[in-house]
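Before the break, one more example. Copy the sequence into your notebook; we will annotate it together after we see the structure.
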Amino acid sequence: SKGHHLIIIDHHNYQGGPNRYNKTSSLEQFAKLINHKFNRFEKGLAINDRAWIYGLISAGYTKKEISKIRSYDLKIQGLNNKVKKLIKQIYKNAVEIVPDIFICDIPFDINLSYLRDLIALRDTNKIISSLLLRRSANNKIVHIVFTGSPKIVKKLYKTFGGSLAGDERYSMVWTSAENISQQVIKFLKKI
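Here is what the structure looks like once it is written out:
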C-alpha cells in the first residue's frame, strides 16, 4: 500500500494548539507547492493575507491597488453595502484610548475586516491599532481582537495567551475568547 504525505498549510499560532506560525502566507505556501508564479494582483492578495495593509504599503502597492485588493478580499468575505453602512456607524464611535490605539464595540456576527481597514487607513504613514470587543446578542463580550503593532501583539499574547497571526514586520492580530477586556485595556494604557 502507498503511504500518504500530509502537508499542512497555515500561518497562525493557536492557543493550546499547534504553532503553525509561518512568515509566508498560506497562499504563498500553496503557490510554492504547485510551482505557481503570482501576477502582481495575486502577489498583493498573498501579502494582504499575511501582512495586511501595512505589508502592501511596504511592498510598494499604491492606494488604488490596495483598495482593489481589500475590496476583493471583503467581497469574498461576503461584505455587502448594508453591513458596510453599519460598520461605518460603529467606526464613528471609535475611541482613541491611547495614541494610535482605537477601541470599538461590535456585534459578534459582524465581519471585522472592514472596520479594521477604516481604522488602519486613518494614516498610512504609521501603524494605527484597534481593539475590537465583539459582543453576543445579550451584550456580553465574547471575543477580543487586537490588530496592529507586532510589538504590542506579542506582549498581549505573552501576558494573556490567546492566538496570534500576521507578519512580525508590519502588523499582527491577537485574539482571545476570554472576557478579559478590562485587563487588556489597562494593559494597553500602560504601554
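DSSP finds seven helices and six strands in the chain. The radius of gyration is 17 Å. Try to locate both features in your own notes.
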